[in-house]
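<instruction>
Derive structure tokens from the sequence
<data>
Labelled lines for chain and fold:
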Amino acid sequence: MTESLQIIELGNPILQQRSHPVVDVRSDRVQKLIADLMLTVRNANGVGIAAPQVAQPDRLFIVASRPTPRYPNAPEMEPTAIINPRFLAHSDEVVKDWEGCLSVPGIRGLVPRYQAIEVEYTGQNGKLYRQEMNGFVARIFQHELDHLDGIVFLARVESVQDLMSEKEYQERIVQANERFSSKE
């Protein structure tokens, strides 16, 4: 039975540990973890979640971009399980944009990430995929991959001036974007 899992938060040492490769993608345990992560990210209004965020040390995460109250302009995509991911290439272009994290509630940070990436990963069905991603979806992938390496997005923020509370972010950034969009 699929269940929504408890998300651990900043300060829990599991978030600082490197996760372990998934050996048997088709095992009942891994398939249940994928289903549970998909439900958990949906219930938390997230756009991605990594196994370490629910205290599981597996190299596995979900990319689930869709508009939510936390990310109203996110593109819509089918939630995807990403298992044992690795970078193949990335663009020279690095873009700073706002990120939040289900394990760091209440804080947003301006984080530099590659604009475009080429990656390889195993899917939920056990097949190997090679994919190019760009923009917001590439950002989600990089954020979640960091979790697998024990890195929280705050470590990527270049200055404390690049931090903001979730409340301020919603009032200043999201509302400003909505006002700008309505003028077009």
About this structure: The chain has three helices and eight strands.
